[in-house]
Structures are given as structure tokens and as C-alpha cells.
Amino acid sequence: MSELLYAAEPGTEVDAMKISLTPELERRIAEKVESGLYTTASEVVREGLRLLFSLDESREQRIERLRGDVQLGLDALARGETIPTEEVFAEATRRIEARRSPP
User: Fold this and answer.
1) What residues make up the domain containing 26?
2) What SS3 state is found at 36?
């Protein structure tokens, strides 16, 4: 493992941070820099972190939507709005088989 010394852009006042990388990660970062898409390893790391944070935010939004859908179902259940079990399983089976069948 090697260590990447990460610092902010030149001229900014931010503490440096040491990050341990596997040889594979180091190689991949070097490839990005060598490709010309990025000028420094720090740029590659920052872009990767931005993407990670974006993915985290997207995942949290999906979880919140799912929680809202679950609450809608619980509210309907509390009002006595139910669907017979046979209908639920028939619909689930239809959806599963539709996914298995090529378009």
C-alpha cells in the first residue's frame, strides 16, 4: 500500500490528509491522470468523493421515498383498505414472470 498526500488547491489554507491506497487504486488514479482527463491525483480523489456523496444522497432519497410508500400502505391498512392475498400473490407472480421473459 502506498499513501497519497491529499491537499487542497494551491494557495488555500487546508490541512493535508494522508490516505492509504492499495496498489490497484494507485494504478487506477495514475491512469486517470495520465489520460489527461485530470491533472493531479487530488483531482481524481475529489471527483471520486463527489460521486460517492452524490450516490449517498441519491440512496437516501430512494430510502425516504420507500418509507413514504410503506407509510401509505400502513395508513391504508389502518383504514381497512386491504387486497385479498390471492390477488397479491397473482400480481407478484405476474410481475416476476414478466421480468423473466425477454422483451
Assistant:
1) 2-100
2) coil
